[in-house]
Design goal:
The chain is of the alpha+beta class. 41% of the residues lie in helices and 19% in strands. The radius of gyration is 20 Å and the shape is globular. GO terms for molecular function: oxidoreductase activity.
Length: 357
């Protein structure tokens, strides 16, 4: 397994998207998020997705040069249309818009419609949290159904992820970020690339029988909601917030018909920020201050494993499975690019190439 410096992977990713007609700033935005996902340890939402995105560009499901347009703009709300641009670039614009409104007015709600795949939501909610804003974000999709509802025999939902991030001053945000399906589609792609099974209770095959082989999913199988009826209920709420409330269904020209709902609250909306941060420290210390159970070294906050991985990978580089690296190398070669020429050695790649705030 080869380790690439974050800066090198960012450069390679940017150049690949530029080669297919993406403006430099948009290509860099997409690379920011993909590399940030790797740094957080979520390789399923990193460069593994490049081949898929290039295919979607060829099919017209992503418009690489598209820029978001703010259709409705009030003091505390906005409706952003992505015109089927890269979901990462569109979501970054929407995140910054929601953050700025929340800092001015205390709260903000932003709807995003007609955009491509956003990937890991924590990349956006943490961006807001690093600017002193609590953010909730969810995605619902009117596209191909992948997840069966609780009690159902056929899929009717997407993976419908949800994410929350709360700021902690100079410390890493507390972040909850997961799909409401038992496993994210990207993690199935990663398991398939590694030739590994997935946890029991994650997927069924095309006949509805439980399986742990990711190939069964890609051969017509389906995802299951996590936690039975509880995960299913969250998936429904995500679909309703990101669909009917966000207005995604009004933009029928969108191939994927994806909607995003963001709700942002300034950390000083209800009390001075110093009091908020003092209370955050007290509560998180109470939660994690108990003795660890057998088999555990310590009690971690949500998002803390990702923060630790981020620090480690800044120094050690981002590991890429051989199959992913070979695919990335071939994609680059087909576009007239040489990955080795774009690489930079470790440790000069230390320091994040992303615009984490």
């Amino acid at each position: 397994m080869r380790h690439l410096a974050p800066a090198a992977l960012h450069r390679i990713t940017t150049r690949i998207f530029e080669a297919v007609g993406t403006p430099e700033d948009i290509a860099s935005d997409v690379a920011d998020v993909l590399v940030d996902n790797h740094l957080a340890g979520h390789d399923s939402h990193g460069v593994l997705r490049i081949a898929q995105y290039l295919q979607w560009i060829r099919e017209g499901r992503i418009v690489p040069h598209a820029r978001p347009e703010v259709l409705v703009d009030t003091s505390s709300t906005a409706l952003v249309r992505g015109h089927m641009g890269f979901g990462q670039s569109v979501a970054l614009v929407a995140t910054d818009l929601a953050t700025a409104k929340a800092k001015r007015n205390g709260v903000a709600a932003v709807s995003v419609v007609d955009l491509g795949h956003t990937g890991r939501l924590g990349a956006f909610t943490e961006r807001a949290a690093r600017q002193g804003v609590v953010m909730f974000m969810t995605v619902g999709s009117g596209g191909p159904a992948m997840t069966v509802p609780f009690g159902g025999a056929e899929p009717s939902l997407g993976t419908n992820p949800i994410a929350f991030s709360l700021p902690r001053g100079s410390q890493d945000p507390v972040t909850l970020d997961y799909a409401t399906s038992a496993i994210a589609n990207g993690k199935l792609m990663l398991a398939r690339a590694k030739g590994e099974p997935v946890p029991e209770g994650s997927i069924v095959d095309r006949e509805g029988a439980p399986t742990t082989d990711p190939e069964d999913y890609f051969a017509g199988g389906h995802l299951l909601p996590f936690g039975g009826h509880k995960g299913y209920a969250l998936a429904v709420i995500a679909d309703l917030l990101a669909g009917p409330l966000a207005g995604a269904d009004s933009y029928s020209g969108a191939v994927m018909e994806t909607g995003v709902f963001m709700f942002a609250v300034a950390s000083d909306a209800f009390r001075p920020e110093r009091d908020y941060l003092r209370a955050m420290d007290a509560v998180t210390a109470r939660i994690t201050g108990v003795p660890p159970a057998p088999g555990f070294d310590d009690v971690l906050l949500p998002g803390e494993p990702e923060a630790r991985t981020h620090r480690a990978r800044l120094n050690d580089g981002i590991p890429l499975p051989e199959e992913t690296l070979a695919e990335l190398t071939q994609i680059a070669a087909d576009l007239g690019l040489d990955i080795d020429a774009l690489d930079v050695p470790l440790p000069s790649g230390g320091g994040t190439p992303t615009r984490r705030q």
